[in-house]
Amino acid sequence: MIKMAKSLMVRDLTADQIITGFFLVREKEVRNTASGKPYLRMELGDSSGTVEARMWDQFEAAAKDVGRDDFVKVQARVEIYRNKPQLSLQQFRLAKPDEINLADFLPHTTYDVEQLFKALLADAEGMKNPWLKKLVLKVLGQPQIAARYKRAPAAKVMHHAYIGGLLEHVASLCGLAKQIAAHYPELDLDLLLTAAMLHDVGKLDELCYERSVSYTTEGQLLGHIVMELETVSRAMEEIAGFPANLKTVVQHILISHHGEYEFGSPKLPMIREALVFHYLDDLDSKLGAVRAALASDSGEPEWSAYSGALGRKFLRLEEFLKDKTGSGKPPNN
Amino acid sequence: MIKMAKSLMVRDLTADQIITGFFLVREKEVRNTASGKPYLRMELGDSSGTVEARMWDQFEAAAKDVGRDDFVKVQARVEIYRNKPQLSLQQFRLAKPDEINLADFLPHTTYDVEQLFKALLADAEGMKNPWLKKLVLKVLGQPQIAARYKRAPAAKVMHHAYIGGLLEHVASLCGLAKQIAAHYPELDLDLLLTAAMLHDVGKLDELCYERSVSYTTEGQLLGHIVMELETVSRAMEEIAGFPANLKTVVQHILISHHGEYEFGSPKLPMIREALVFHYLDDLDSKLGAVRAALASDSGEPEWSAYSGALGRKFLRLEEFLKDKTGSGKPPNN
Amino acid sequence: MIKMAKSLMVRDLTADQIITGFFLVREKEVRNTASGKPYLRMELGDSSGTVEARMWDQFEAAAKDVGRDDFVKVQARVEIYRNKPQLSLQQFRLAKPDEINLADFLPHTTYDVEQLFKALLADAEGMKNPWLKKLVLKVLGQPQIAARYKRAPAAKVMHHAYIGGLLEHVASLCGLAKQIAAHYPELDLDLLLTAAMLHDVGKLDELCYERSVSYTTEGQLLGHIVMELETVSRAMEEIAGFPANLKTVVQHILISHHGEYEFGSPKLPMIREALVFHYLDDLDSKLGAVRAALASDSGEPEWSAYSGALGRKFLRLEEFLKDKTGSGKPPNN
Amino acid sequence: MIKMAKSLMVRDLTADQIITGFFLVREKEVRNTASGKPYLRMELGDSSGTVEARMWDQFEAAAKDVGRDDFVKVQARVEIYRNKPQLSLQQFRLAKPDEINLADFLPHTTYDVEQLFKALLADAEGMKNPWLKKLVLKVLGQPQIAARYKRAPAAKVMHHAYIGGLLEHVASLCGLAKQIAAHYPELDLDLLLTAAMLHDVGKLDELCYERSVSYTTEGQLLGHIVMELETVSRAMEEIAGFPANLKTVVQHILISHHGEYEFGSPKLPMIREALVFHYLDDLDSKLGAVRAALASDSGEPEWSAYSGALGRKFLRLEEFLKDKTGSGKPPNN
Amino acid sequence: MIKMAKSLMVRDLTADQIITGFFLVREKEVRNTASGKPYLRMELGDSSGTVEARMWDQFEAAAKDVGRDDFVKVQARVEIYRNKPQLSLQQFRLAKPDEINLADFLPHTTYDVEQLFKALLADAEGMKNPWLKKLVLKVLGQPQIAARYKRAPAAKVMHHAYIGGLLEHVASLCGLAKQIAAHYPELDLDLLLTAAMLHDVGKLDELCYERSVSYTTEGQLLGHIVMELETVSRAMEEIAGFPANLKTVVQHILISHHGEYEFGSPKLPMIREALVFHYLDDLDSKLGAVRAALASDSGEPEWSAYSGALGRKFLRLEEFLKDKTGSGKPPNN
Amino acid sequence: MIKMAKSLMVRDLTADQIITGFFLVREKEVRNTASGKPYLRMELGDSSGTVEARMWDQFEAAAKDVGRDDFVKVQARVEIYRNKPQLSLQQFRLAKPDEINLADFLPHTTYDVEQLFKALLADAEGMKNPWLKKLVLKVLGQPQIAARYKRAPAAKVMHHAYIGGLLEHVASLCGLAKQIAAHYPELDLDLLLTAAMLHDVGKLDELCYERSVSYTTEGQLLGHIVMELETVSRAMEEIAGFPANLKTVVQHILISHHGEYEFGSPKLPMIREALVFHYLDDLDSKLGAVRAALASDSGEPEWSAYSGALGRKFLRLEEFLKDKTGSGKPPNN
After folding, report:
1. Is the model's pTM score more than 0.80?
2. What is the least distance, in Å, from the CA of C34 to any CA of chain A?
3. In a mutagenesis test of the B interface, which of D64, D217, D262 is the best target, namely the one with the most B β-carbons within 10 Å?
4. pLDDT tier at C33, thresholds 50, 70, 90
5. Residues in contact with E182: Cβ distance below 8 Å, sequence separation at least 6, in sequence order
6. Does A323 touch chain C (CB under 8 A)?
7. A292-301, B12-21, D209-218, E324-333: which has the minimum mean pLDDT?
8. Angle subtended by helix axes E272-295 and D272-295, to nearest 10
9. Closest residue by Cα to residue F219 from F140, F155, F283
């Protein structure tokens, strides 16, 4: 059953509305005014953003049952405080499971994940190396993997940090792999595609991403490289006759794909395709981070917000080039 | 006038030949045998390699006129010493300028540089941004630049370190740029192409590459980034009406293309295209270095020689996968 | 026309005064009290410091026209809040341009910039190398450069971060250069003076310093080293017959003056005078930073405030040596 | 069948003997004298050292069949050249397999490996945690592992770089673990013992150590951490009911035992026992390296040879303290 | 006279009590409510924790005499604010010196320092090297050292950061030293014990720890390594006949005990015992830091708080292993 | 008694002389010719350079008594081998002590050390701070210090690595200190002079420099910073009433003068004069290294030899500026 999208999103709140809607509780606390009177303060969110909410009276009963990461149904008046909407709650209660569509509450890719996944399988089917083809189809074909593969973000904050972000990133890498292999005939396309499809499979379990994105305990202790190494190695063992050295090659590409020891790769890329794949992965991730930085408001019209992932801010090129100072009429060529 | 290729190359020397041929003197010294008798030792080379040469008697007159980086005509017997050919000189003299075709004496690209350069100009002609198109054509159109552009190596030792290597590297980057811009529609192809064509123009004068590849004094004091900055900035100033901010963008892409301070970029890439171009340049250079490492003999069948540029050696993938140990019959898909 | 200095400065505010004066708006926002009543909060400043201001009633009309970086005329009562003065505004309005003397609103050097600049020109006139002398006088003689040279700070926060700070720093460097060249006869004084006078010319446009000190977009993309390289190179080209190698030397000294790649120098100093100038520039900058740290209150009597530029705090030597514990009568020598 | 130890070792060669014996060929080449006459030069070795050997005449037939890493039987005269013995070969031939006892040709531990291994099994039997006990006994009990465990060196050059060195290192770690767990009651001894016994199991296949110690291709591509992760993980999977979280803990301790990313650990130790085990492993390895440095002659009586593994040389404490300069009669306490 | 322990500790405050007790003032300020009414806010503490306190009326007279680091006697009502106790002050005054037992106000070791110190002296008495024994007893026997030795913390925040922490750390190191010397017979136990007892003597004066732990000015300028070097060197000089080279050895062990230049050791350990002692000191310090991190509440049941000293958080092993998911019945061995 | 300077120096050897002279044996070995005949090879030196020497016959008797670091009297013929002089020995014997003047055999400063030292004492006498003046005069006045102060080199290889180099370096620093203190009135000249005179006193015993420059064992274990700390601290203690805090200041300046932890300073400079002195010391040392690099032949006319101390080579400025390419007539100013 596909649930209806939420009708009311945070980004659409406007002053002086009286609204009824569903939100995820991101923070909740009871504060006192300076005169000592307690009031309820919550941070409510959905996939489109976050809004402050306050309730000044008779909140105790409702508040008792509600905690962080719960979903609530609220009735409130929208006020503007320091140029931002804020909710003055009139009443609220825990939402019922069937009132909620999880997808409404976490940001997600704008692509159609089913279609992306189908394209991935098609790329896998097109491989020429029978062993690698069998390996990739075997891994992607496991139902509990396929389902999570379509939901997982690619990271907690660095890049593609939204539902479906991992699949979007992998799909982009497959496209890049095909182009690069066409450009450099010395490269083995099947190895690059295998790397693209399997290099982040460990993230399915390194991260948890039900109501917010965070790390699992296992994920913190092992990391996705070690986790996917186990998944993929087991799959190779289960394929009768899988060549031993090809297994070593696949393992090497997985463990070296971060490119440097300090980023958690226990080996540097020592196979041509491993080196190239590291570049492609790094490039696509960094471009994702640039995109995120440019999408958020920095207060400076010509600059993106500062990106922690990149250690810098980025120029808004179009803004900067708009300024025609000192520019003449374009030359006739 | 196109000179004939040298008929006798170092790589073709075989035992017990008596040969007559032309070589570049790479080293020359007079040594003594343990019994105190002096003899002449030279290292002679051409684009295919290097060979030791010795002359035991009556070498003084001929040796007097000859020094490092001179061309000589020699008559000699080929002997095998420690499994390598060595020349036992019978006589030699300075070669005359019209006996020598410089191209025979430095390793060079296997591509046709005239064709590569034509393709480059065609890419430039195809640009949509009138200012960038004018800029690139203006720089490449300067005769003293075009001529050197077809000869320059891309580096002294790191990658594409042979005559025509720079152009080969640039041509590869233009191809990559077109693919990447097709893959990421947010990217400005014309900026990437401009970067590809101009980012190493400073190398035309940072390096000297007449008889061997080395750095000019100016090259050591300024480096190619600063040198091409001046060349390209002057060209932009000479184009009436060139937009001031576009000039800044082009300058930024040039100075940031090494990507990190420690590699001599005084600014980190802060424009999306600058970041992407840095990745493409780095990838193509590194793959050039891998290619060179794999091409040289390491004594280990499964491994390339150690590459100083990459700080590691690379697996010979085909060799390694040849070993069928533990591999069964490929699956029927 | 020289404007009168502001009669009322932030540093002079005392409790319970009713004041009328002019200030720069550094921040402005409307907040709510806990009981929901909105009030205006501004941060007002001049060259002597910053003060909080609040207005509790009827601020809307006046507040509408006023924003960050505007100048305002205010009437207020000075109150003491947490040991610091605070303004309780009675009324305020935008100041008129002719009521404002910009110099009152940014901290500035305590030296007479006209006199410093004259001394600089005198040093330039005293050079023996005719080419360097011509170069320096040409650059400093450009009216738009001279005017900015007398205003520019040497940095945004690191050292000499106040109006006229750049000139003060350069003047100090010229003095140092003369001493060092006297001490080490092997050094060329004219090169050191040229370096001192031109090494930060790019900062005139890297920074903007009208109402507060910040970076221009061009400054962030190129940096002052690249910017002054263009200015100075063009000047050298415009001097007929300027020796090509001397030009390279001047360019090298400019680009290497930060001394290390990680500080944005694309080349390390490889000329004796370049190395020495780097030391002098670094020393004078660091001493400026120490001076600033010692001038600000740290709460610890024996220690300066922590200096981010230096990564440490500094001992107040006089305070520390005041303590006579364990010290006897000075010896008779 | 236990072979007899070699009767003649390199370390026992003395001048002017005529000897007959067996050696491993470490290097072999044909050189020419200055007068052009070829001679055979070999480096011959056994577990006690290395010796140069030359043959001046009629070596061609014998030399043809012999290469690096072959064993030879030689007859020669011992001469002293530059204060070292050198062999002047009279004749030599390939040794037959049954003439050779491999153990004579690689340096090995001075401990009895069978006894060390028995003690290891006893420690394993003494564990209280039933799962860890079962795991360790299962791994050590695999015949192909046990056999190699008794032979493997702990490293190629860094520490315990001799046959049996790995077992010696592990035995020392088990002893340390017991002491440390007694000292810090908060520590789980069974986890420390498990770490000690399994942390280098991957080295059994990372290194090859038949005739000299070197890395396997698989070892270079994966490293022992990844290799043993697979071995140990498979063993845990094969133990029915092995607790999932305990498996994660064991995996974490294995992958973090190098302690830092730059030494190839993809995760830092985040479990108390993982941190402690890293310290013990590092300490025992470093002490092994110190021992090796002190054992080799440096030419300086008070100093060890320089240790590349430690980046320094070490003081010979006893030598240094022998010097009684300035020391009086010991005090009566 | 031994004072009674404080009867009321911060950790024991519960809602709605009216309490009377003694506390240390850690912070004090006068704030205004949004309506402009001033109130007093203090942070009060003892060895068990910290609590916020507010006084809304008539606080001026009492507040005038009281400042940071003073002790106060307060009467208050305990309220709960944001889930934490808070004091609503009714009255307070400066405490009198004889009402206060300093030990109640700083956290301290749970061991009996007198007993620890006695054990230390016993270890010293047991040394075999007469010079080292005399040295250690001489230093520890100085009354002003012994008294401070029993009070000093081992650090300001990193590890053992409480009264008596230094002695606890040293006692642990002596125990470790005895075990390690038993394990590695090549080690000189007396040198290790000397190192343990003297390596942090400089901290007695580097830190001040009367009412809170901080650095002395001398401590910041010299550091404990340099400070103890002077103390210990003077003691060695005062022992007639102390061997000169043994003095150098002791000095080397002291100055190298941080193990790396970047941690303030001017020399790397170049004596076997110096290297080993560095490991032991580092291990015991790190375990102290782990213990502190695990002892503080992180909000995550399976993880400790983040430890700045270690740059990571630590797993609560018992919590994690409690989870029986996937674990079967323990095997019968 | 002042000995006569050596009459024959290495730098003066010319072809075909028959010479008699005194040299220091830097290396000695017996080699074999390819035909197996042994000959003696020595490297002989004096303060002006090094020369190879060979003896082909009847060298055994003489060679037996002679070793490295001995002085020999030789009779030989000067031959030219590979463009360098070489000695063909006819006879040689150990030199007698009274035939040798040590000063002839190590390179030394070109300044008059007695005069430099007198100037140092005069600077000390001129100090205004009575305590620092007394301290410096006390240290320099110790006879065993004064004598070594006039001989010691400033380093083994980095800079001023010749007899008297330390004093030359200190004298230069005193001159710099006076200039800098005149330039920055905030600086205390007496502290800078004290730093200059005492900062390398530890090198008198860190290095040994009788026949060649090397490190003492104590020097390697402690380093000159720790060694001079002891010397200077003891002198301060012996001055009755020396102020305790001034002592701390002097100690801080000594231990922080290397400026960075990684160069062996256990504390960063946190006193203004300590920071400035670090800069002066570093500048004078680096310029010494530049001078040494420029003085040695690199084979490239425009470049110095590569300086390991500086990690680069330096431009020969005069050579480079000689080239008039592109330079016009100097402008009339």
Report:
1. yes
2. 6
3. D217
4. low
5. D179
6. no
7. E324-333
8. 180
9. F155
In a 3-state reduction of DSSP, which class is residue F299? coil
Give the pLDDT score at C34. Answer: 52
What is the rounded average pLDDT for all residues in chain D? 89
Alpha-carbon distances of D163 from C312, D98, D150, D219, rounded to whole Å: 52, 20, 8, 18
Residue in the structure block whose two tokens are 């002089």: F85
Q: Do A227 and B315 meet the contact criterion of CB atoms below 8 Å apart?
A: no
Q: Considering CB atoms only, which of D249, D263, D266 is closest to A265?
A: D266
B245 touches chain D (CB under 8 A): no
E strands, chain F, in order: 18-32, 38-46, 49-55, 71-81, 84-94, 207-208, 214-215
Cβ neighbors of A164 (< 8 A, separation 6 or more) are: A108, A109, A111, A113, A116, A150, A151, A152, A153
pLDDT exceeds 80 at position F311: yes
C-beta pairs of B202-206 under 8 Å, 24+ apart in sequence? B202/B226, B202/B227, B202/B228, B202/B229, B202/B231, B203/B152, B203/B154, B203/B155, B203/B166, B203/B228, B204/B145, B204/B148, B204/B149, B204/B152, B204/B166, B205/B148
CA D103 to chain centre: 13
Residue F227 or E40, more confident: F227
How far is it, in rounded angstroms, from Cα C201 to Cα F210?
A: 52
3-state secondary structure chain B: CCCCCCCCCHHHCCCCCEEEEEEEEEEEEEEECCCCCEEEEEEEEECCEEEEEEECCCCHHHHHCCCCCCEEEEEEEEEEECCEEEEEEEEEEECCHHHCCHHHCCCECCCCHHHHHHHHHHHHHCCCCHHHHHHHHHHHHCHHHHHHHCCCCCCCCCCCCCECHHHHHHHHHHHHHHHHHHHCCCCCHHHHHHHHHHCCCCHHHHEECCCCCEECHHHHHHHHHHHHHHHHHHHHHHCCCCCHHHHHHHHHHHHCCCCCHHHCCCCCCCCHHHHHHHHHHHHHHHHHHHHHHHHCCCCCCCECCCECCCCECCECHHHHHHCCCCCCCCCCC
Where does residue F231 rank: exposed (0-12), middle (13-18), buried (19+ CB within 10 A)? Answer: middle
Size of interface D-E (CB pairs under 8 A): 150
Angle of helix A113-125 versus helix A189-198 axis, rounded to 10: 150
Chain A residues with CB-CB distance to E315 below 8 A:
217, 221
- Label each residue of B134-194 as H, E or C: HHHHHHHHCHHHHHHHCCCCCCCCCCCCCECHHHHHHHHHHHHHHHHHHHCCCCCHHHHHH
Q: Which chains touch B (3 or more CB pairs under 8 A)?
A: A, C, D, F
- A192 token code pair: 């690059």
Interface chains of chain A (3 or more CB pairs under 8 Å): B, C, D, E
Interchain contact D82–F (C-beta under 8 A) = yes
Q: Which of A306, C304, B319, D250 is nearest to F270 (CA)?
A: C304
Judged by 3 or more CB pairs under 8 A, whether B touches E is: no
Q: Which of F131, F140, F77, F99 is nearest to F243 (CA)?
A: F131
Distance, in Å, from the CA atom of A167 to the CA atom of A153, rounded to the nearest integer, reads: 8
The answer to whether C242 and C194 have CB atoms below 8 angstroms apart is no
- Residue A1's pLDDT is 37
* Chain D residues closer than 8 Å to B302 by CB: 217
Q: pLDDT of A85-118, one tens digit each?
A: 889 999 999 999 888 887 788 888 999 999 999 9
> Closest Cα to residue A72, out of A53, A56, A57?
A53
Q: Does A233 touch chain D (CB under 8 A)?
A: yes
Give the C-alpha separation, D126 to D141, whole Å.
Answer: 15
